[in-house]
Amino acid sequence: MSMRSALMAIFASRGTVIWVAACMVLGVYLFATRPPELPSASDVVSDRKIPIDRVFRILAAENDAARGLYSAEIVTAGQKAGLAFDENWRERTHDAGPLPALFLREAATAIRQTPVPLGLFLGSDFPISQSNLFKGEQDEHFQNVRRNAEPEFFYAADVKLYTAMFPDYAVGAGCVSCHNEHAQSPKKDWILRDMMGATTWSYPTESVTPEEAVQVVSVLRSGFAKAYTAYLTKSAAFAYPPEVGERWPKEGYFLPSADVFMREFEQRASPGTVRLLLQVMSAD
Predict the structure, then answer these.
(1) Per-residue pLDDT at 255 exceeds 70
(2) How crowded is residue 218: how many other Cβ atoms within 10 Å of its Cβ?
(3) Residue 42: what pLDDT?
(4) Which is more confidently placed, 243 or 47?
(5) Angle, nearest 10°, between helix axes 258-283 and 210-235?
(6) pTM attached to this predicted model
(7) What are the distances in angstroms from CA 89 to CA 26, 34, 116?
(8) Cα–Cα distances in angstroms (integers) from residue 136 to residues 64, 104, 111, 158, in the given order
(9) Which sign, positive or negative, has the C-alpha torsion 277, 214, 104, 117?
(10) Is 202 within 8 Å of 161 (Cβ atoms)?
(11) Secondary structure (3-state) at 129
């Protein structure tokens, strides 16, 4: 039996002790392994459900870890080492990588190409691109997020999706300078730690099985891996390609491989994910 199948068999049980044991197994899975192929629906039968808002909190924590790692250790450190990051990074004439917001967009695109119906969108009331502007009901909920600095959970009746918005802050100097200096930016006085927008998650059901929860986390991690791999692919075509391997930009003109990047991300993200899962179990 695979690690995933064993985990889901444990999740199918309902005792408190077994739930704690499941979290311990999941901790090993999150820390020590790369997600294998997803199991078929016949691999596990469980009548237990997890509210989707709790899964959204796990996804938000995972996103914070990935964005923080990419922003600080790749973009900020990379700029000091001579690497460039640009909104037009995909153009052949630009030897550049994606900015943090575009890294998230790459991950969102990868998620949309999977059968898992998870939506991911980064919006704002002052976006550079009008396609990222919150409108109507979304804007009303975002203004609540801006006022309270707390996530907002709601059902979007127009698209029939359960939705969550989490504050998205300017965590690096690159985020601030890009928006302040961009010709199309409607706001040019951003400072570090400003709330620049909200990361918005959506899912079609109000709750999920434990199997679905693990699938959603796995597909998000896969999205991060594909987003970073896209950058590495582009960097190989630079006029002066960085060396890819074990070293990071803080050590010079280097980039970590996808395996090294994801290993560091997993080490940073997994403690928070396990902690949130334990909270879910305690609440149940």
Answers:
(1) yes
(2) 19
(3) 43
(4) 243
(5) 160
(6) 0.82
(7) 37, 28, 28
(8) 26, 23, 25, 11
(9) negative
(10) yes
(11) coil
